[in-house]
Design brief:
The chain is α+β, with helices and mostly antiparallel strands. It is built from twelve helices and 18 strands. About 30% of the residues lie in helices and about 25% in strands. Helix 4 (about 90-95) packs across helix 5. The chain starts with a strand and ends with a strand.
């Protein structure tokens, strides 16, 4: 059973079928493309645990996977636990998928944690702001893709930030936490993969942002990670410690961390699933392995074969996006950028509606680069606006 049939999730359905599995898909959107690929489709919400459980029981599924989906991950863990299928502890997955619970867990288990608190209404927020020092970040406890998140530098903007966060929360709860400044150029982002409780794949990369559009929404990843070896080891130790304390056994985890000026590691977000924005595809290029296949096999209780691998530089992705609303016409790439592009995934066609890029769901597509050196990678990525033109009508 696969939970979610969006364009980015179709690859999981296709991979499962290639492995010989009969695929059952659940999705609440009537126009999801996955329904045309899966062997059987149910129009149900992937966050409706009991309804999806009933489908799983009736179909007698042998495994369940919420590929690249934070909202559906607790449902997958719930079904696995109820049916005795392979999976990670439901309570641990719930903690990782709820920013409020996640911060509480970190605080109680010895991890670096910013001053933070959760709220159910704006009155409680206004009565509690004295606990914080600016800047702070305001966000829903249960969203992904930076939906509804705002970095706040002035209290005068608090009401708008709180309303935006509530508008994206399914459980009507938000969290405010002090904003930690990183010492290095990029956030650390990407996917790790756990087998038998040990992190076996370290897909840690530089996480790029477009500060002119939205400083919180990722616009791509690049590899290798630009971080000192001592800091990389601290990051790895922190993540393995988290895996141990949450009793995570198997599967992909999407991570985002920073190292501050005191060389302390801070866990920003950790999702118990494969990353979005085609991160598994990028890792496939870098490590020459099929992360999607690994995820399917783990969900079915099969141990994927990970032989010795040697990562290859210099790869990157860029999420195509617009700084304004409009109607899609075309995308023009410079001749120099075209030289390094190895794959284009364009979601929009001429005449489609385009929205300002304030969360990951509004990307126009993703392109993959293979560079010949760190110099060429930095030259293109640091001046990406000179190499890509989004034409709107």
């Amino acid at each position: 059973m696969l939970l979610g049939g969006s364009a980015q999730q179709v690859i999981a359905i296709e991979t499962a079928k290639k492995l010989g599995y009969y695929t059952v898909l659940c999705d609440f959107l009537t126009d999801n493309p996955g329904q045309y690929v899966a062997d059987k489709f149910y129009l149900v919400s992937t966050t409706d645990k009991e309804t999806v459980l009933n489908v799983a029981l009736s179909e007698k599924v042998d495994g369940v996977l919420a590929y690249a989906s934070d909202p559906a991950a607790p449902t997958a863990a719930y079904i696995s636990q109820k049916m005795g299928l392979p999976g990670n502890p439901y309570e641990s997955v719930e903690i990782l998928c709820n920013k409020d619970k996640f911060r509480n867990f970190l605080s109680k288990n010895g991890f670096n944690t910013p001053v933070a608190n959760g709220y159910m209404n704006i009155t409680d927020v206004l009565n509690d702001i004295q606990r914080y020092k600016l800047p702070v970040i305001v966000k829903p406890v249960d969203s992904s893709g930076s939906k509804g998140a705002t970095v706040l530098y002035l209290w005068e903007c608090l009401k708008d930030a709180v309303e935006a966060a509530f508008s994206f929360s399914r459980c009507n709860r938000i969290i405010i936490e002090e904003f930690i400044e990183k010492k290095h150029k990029f956030l650390i982002g990407g996917d790790i993969f756990v087998l038998n409780g040990n992190v076996t794949l370290w897909g840690l990369m530089n996480c790029h942002r477009d500060n002119k559009v939205n400083s919180l929404v990722p616009i791509g990843k690049s590899y290798p990670l630009e971080l000192e070896n001592g800091d990389i080891n601290k990051v790895k130790d922190t993540l393995q410690d988290l895996v141990n304390k949450l009793h995570i056994k198997d599967g992909a985890m999407n991570v985002e961390l920073i190292v501050d000026k005191n060389d302390d590691v801070w866990l920003i977000d950790v999702g118990p699933r494969n990353g979005g924005n085609m991160i598994p595809d990028l890792l496939g290029y870098i490590f020459n392995i099929n992360v999607v296949e690994m995820s399917i096999k783990v969900a079915m209780g099969d141990a994927p074969d990970i032989s010795k691998y040697k990562p290859v530089p210099f790869y990157a992705t860029h999420n195509l996006h617009s700084d304004k609303n409009g109607i899609f016409d075309k995308i023009i790439f410079s001749e120099e950028a075209e030289h390094f592009i190895i794959k284009k995934c364009i979601y929009k066609k001429k005449g489609d509606k385009v929205e300002y890029f304030d969360n990951a769901s509004k990307a126009l597509g993703i392109i993959f680069f293979k560079f010949d050196s760190a110099g060429s990678m930095n030259r293109i990525l640091q001046n990406i606006d000179n190499h890509i033109r989004i034409l709107l009508k």
